[in-house]
Amino acid sequence: KILIVDFGSQVTQLIARRVREDGVYCEIVPFNKADGAFKEMKPKAVILSGGPASVLDANAPSVPLPLLTAGVPVLGICYGEQTMAQQLGGTVEGGHHREFGRATIEVTDDCALFEGVWEKGGRYEVWMSHGDRVTRLPDGFRGVAKAQGSPISVIADDVRKFYAMQFHPEVVHTPDGAKLIRNFVRKIAGLTGDWTMRAFREEEIAKIRAQVGKGKVICGLSGGVDSAVAAVLIHEAIGDQLTCVFVDHGLLRLDEAKTVVDLFRHHYNIPLVHVDASKQFLGELEGVTDPETKRKTIGRLFIEVFEAEAKKIGGADFLAQGTLYPDVIESVSFTGGPSVTIKSHHNVGGLPERMNMKLVEPLRELFKDEVRKLGRELGLPEIFVGRHPFPGPGLAIRCPGDITRDKLDILRKADAVYIDQIRKHGLYDEIWQAFAVLLPVKTVGVMGDGRTYDYVVGLRAVTSTDGMTADFYQFDMKFLGETATRIINEVKGVNRVVYDVTSKPPGTIEWE
Ligand code: XMP
């Protein structure tokens, strides 16, 4: 087991992910609870995350001392490095040279962390995000790599097995980062990777049972993989103490509602309430064009409809959601930190206290591909597990401008043709997410002898591993041409199709 001490970095969860990819169980705890967790968990190693604070601040968070004196290996990352260096007697100063983003570091000495990955004298690409730097080494340490902005960029104490680095090895922008973490986990801490998704399933089931007891849970199904996996997992844990509520907001894809009802009610025999609330949603969304207002409106209505259903079901103590890790971080904003709310995801936060229900979120620590693995582990049909992600606010955010039933119908049909094309060409599984967007513009076209004045459909397809960054998918032009022709011929109201070639960043995957 590894204990990860969180100092508030946006990417702490990525450290956990890397460790789990190496097949080692780990838990994340906030720095102010680390002392107790350390005693209870008795981890074989500790990793200190980055964070937005500066060790030079008066109330800077620090590592509880027992973690540094218990004789377990410690890996400090960014803020974790700085506080570790300072607490062990080194000096940290405000950097005259702030480094954010891609940087090159030069390895100046051999070190167990670099074994088989980096060589002395080599220069390697890493991802930096820090203002302070270590200027004097604590006793027992040596510097093993330097960067332009920080002459002491990686530090090592081989006797205590303490290692620390200024850069972030957990992000994909540090191409060798995962291997460095693996060296720490496997070679330095000596852990063998035998932790699997099956173990996660068992652990989560135990956690759900412990949390819920004899309580009743209601779970919102959205039609997507996440809520489906959450529901099946919870059902496995507590059986019919779970009732699923499927709120059909009228913003779903073609035939989606039917698929969900069939799978849950008929295949899994999970108690399911199907609420057709499309009138209410589309009514309130009428004339709303601002993306955040759309998201907030849908989020609020969703909760209202839920509350009404919960009342009807009666006595539900818990609300289950398929919240994933990327939903959590992109919705959190640290005051003063580098992160801002990018989009308010409708399934996170904002759950009114008045609902008086506690949350069950068994997937909160997982990334999408891990949820898929878990879904397969739980025996969900491949067609469902392999499905592209679909956002909670549904087609509302794929219909920039105001939303009408007519526009939604056009969008649904265009989207179905596009996805059909992708499946027919065997491309579905290569793509992380593909969908059509209905643009709020009409353009002139010509069909037969007549002039047309119809909508433009935008096509989006991206590859990604976690939804946090993405590249647009490189279709061949023949495929795009054929798809455009099919959409224009088969979907009335569309006379032009465009393809979106923006990656994330700077774009987001969805258009709103
Ligand atoms: P963006 O557009 O932020 O999307 O690049 C990243 C991933 O998140 C999905 N997404 C959402 N999922 N509720 C969700 O459950 C939401 O409000 C929401 N907004 C975006 C999006 O489809 C992509 O997979």
TrEMBL record:
<keyword id="KW-0658">Purine biosynthesis</keyword>
<feature type="active site">
    <location>
        <position position="168"/>
    </location>
</feature>
<dbReference type="InterPro" id="IPR029062">
    <property type="entry name" value="Class_I_gatase-like"/>
</dbReference>
<feature type="active site">
    <location>
        <position position="170"/>
    </location>
</feature>
<comment type="pathway">
    <text>Purine metabolism; GMP biosynthesis; GMP from XMP (L-Gln route): step 1/1.</text>
</comment>
<dbReference type="InterPro" id="IPR022310">
    <property type="entry name" value="NAD/GMP_synthase"/>
</dbReference>
<dbReference type="InterPro" id="IPR004739">
    <property type="entry name" value="GMP_synth_GATase"/>
</dbReference>
<protein>
    <recommendedName>
        <fullName>GMP synthase [glutamine-hydrolyzing]</fullName>
        <ecNumber>6.3.5.2</ecNumber>
    </recommendedName>
</protein>
<dbReference type="Pfam" id="PF00958">
    <property type="entry name" value="GMP_synt_C"/>
</dbReference>
<dbReference type="Pfam" id="PF00117">
    <property type="entry name" value="GATase"/>
</dbReference>
<dbReference type="GO" id="GO:0005829">
    <property type="term" value="C:cytosol"/>
</dbReference>
<keyword id="KW-0315">Glutamine amidotransferase</keyword>
<dbReference type="GO" id="GO:0005524">
    <property type="term" value="F:ATP binding"/>
</dbReference>
<comment type="function">
    <text>Catalyzes the synthesis of GMP from XMP.</text>
</comment>
<dbReference type="InterPro" id="IPR014729">
    <property type="entry name" value="Rossmann-like_a/b/a_fold"/>
</dbReference>
<feature type="domain" description="GMPS ATP-PPase">
    <location>
        <begin position="195"/>
        <end position="387"/>
    </location>
</feature>
<feature type="binding site">
    <location>
        <begin position="222"/>
        <end position="228"/>
    </location>
    <ligand>
        <name>ATP</name>
    </ligand>
</feature>
<dbReference type="GO" id="GO:0003921">
    <property type="term" value="F:GMP synthase activity"/>
</dbReference>
<dbReference type="InterPro" id="IPR025777">
    <property type="entry name" value="GMPS_ATP_PPase_dom"/>
</dbReference>
<keyword id="KW-0436">Ligase</keyword>
<dbReference type="Pfam" id="PF02540">
    <property type="entry name" value="NAD_synthase"/>
</dbReference>
<keyword id="KW-0067">ATP-binding</keyword>
<keyword id="KW-0547">Nucleotide-binding</keyword>
<feature type="active site" description="Nucleophile">
    <location>
        <position position="78"/>
    </location>
</feature>
<dbReference type="InterPro" id="IPR001674">
    <property type="entry name" value="GMP_synth_C"/>
</dbReference>
<dbReference type="InterPro" id="IPR022955">
    <property type="entry name" value="GMP_synthase"/>
</dbReference>
<keyword id="KW-0332">GMP biosynthesis</keyword>
<dbReference type="InterPro" id="IPR017926">
    <property type="entry name" value="GATASE"/>
</dbReference>
<comment type="subunit">
    <text>Homodimer.</text>
</comment>
